[in-house]
Amino acid sequence: MSQHTASHSEQKSSWVSGLAALIVVAALVLYYTLADQSLLLRLAVMFGGIIAAVLIVAISPDGRRFIAYAKDSWYEVKKVVWPTRKETTQMTLVVFGFVLIMSLFLWIADKLIEWLVFSAFLGWK
């Protein structure tokens, strides 16, 4: 029985999403169809259609789940302890220093391998 209910809910959800997509497409088509009208009217039609589609999706089960997920995510972001400016500057300098040292090491390794291959083994230089 629950299997049937879950598939029915998925069908309803996809139907609602399809309706919302159709409304967005209709709003965009009307925006370009009303080219001879004022820009304000065209923008009102387009944004009105987009807002209507967002509201339709928001009242669907998938929309409600997404809104709950977004709220939970925002709650988790608020719990993050962000580094201070000093810590950020110090870590940035550490990264730059590491990149400088690694680039120097790779340049020396490249020149050593180049010398070994071309001068020592092949005798080209």
Task: Describe the protein.
This protein is an all-alpha fold and 125 residues long. The protein has two domains: 14-80; 82-124. The chain is 86% helix and 0% strand. It contains four helices and no strands. It has helices at residues 2-33, 39-58, 61-78, 85-121. The longest helix has 37 residues, at 85-121. 4% of the residues are buried. One of its GO terms (cellular component) is plasma membrane. One of its GO terms (biological process) is protein secretion. Belongs to the SecE/SEC61-gamma family. Its main location: membrane. One of its GO terms (molecular function) is protein transmembrane transporter activity.
Fraction of residues in H or I helices? over 70%
- What would you report as the Rg, rounded to the nearest angstrom? 30 Å
The class by helix and strand makeup works out as mainly alpha
How many domains comprise the coordinates?
2
What count of helical segments does DSSP give?
4
Key terms:
125 residues, 0% strand, mainly alpha
Overview in brief:
This protein is mainly alpha-helical and 125 residues long.
Write the layout of secondary structure elements.
Elements: H1 2-33, H2 39-58, H3 61-78, H4 85-121
Helix pairs in contact: 1-2
